[in-house]
Design a protein that fits this description.
Length: 119
């Protein structure tokens, strides 16, 4: 069945809302986790997009879902790596190794409560 314009609009709106919620999760994580810093809402939205793209690339290249709790320890560590790498792509994001590990944990816990699927 073909998509109607209304269905595409709702799908696009859903994606925008997801990135906005994911950005808020990143800002909350920045507040809670030492060694993880996001400069502001614009930076958080860009970081959420970059994290989603890196997750997509890893999933496409390695047939692996990098959600923090979806694939056990390996998924958790890949999530931390994605978070760590984001600082090299997005100006205004600073992450230490321990900050990335703690951020992956916090994002995973928040995602269990408010599913955003940023990773």
């Amino acid at each position: 069945m073909a998509d109607t314009s209304n269905e595409r609009h709702h799908s696009f709106l859903g994606v925008i809302i997801r990135f906005f919620v994911a950005a808020i999760v990143l800002l909350i994580t920045s507040f809670l986790v030492p060694g993880f810093f996001v400069a502001g809402m614009g930076t958080a939205i860009l970081a959420a997009i970059v994290i989603a793209l890196l997750d997509y690339l890893i999933a496409a290249l390695f047939n692996f879902n990098a959600s923090p709790f979806g694939k056990g320890l390996v998924g958790f560590l890949v999530s931390a790596l994605i978070i760590y790498l984001t600082q090299f792509v997005v100006k205004g994001v600073a992450v230490s190794v321990w900050g990335a590990i703690l951020a992956a944990l916090v994002i995973g816990l928040i995602d269990m409560i408010i599913p955003t699927r940023i990773m």
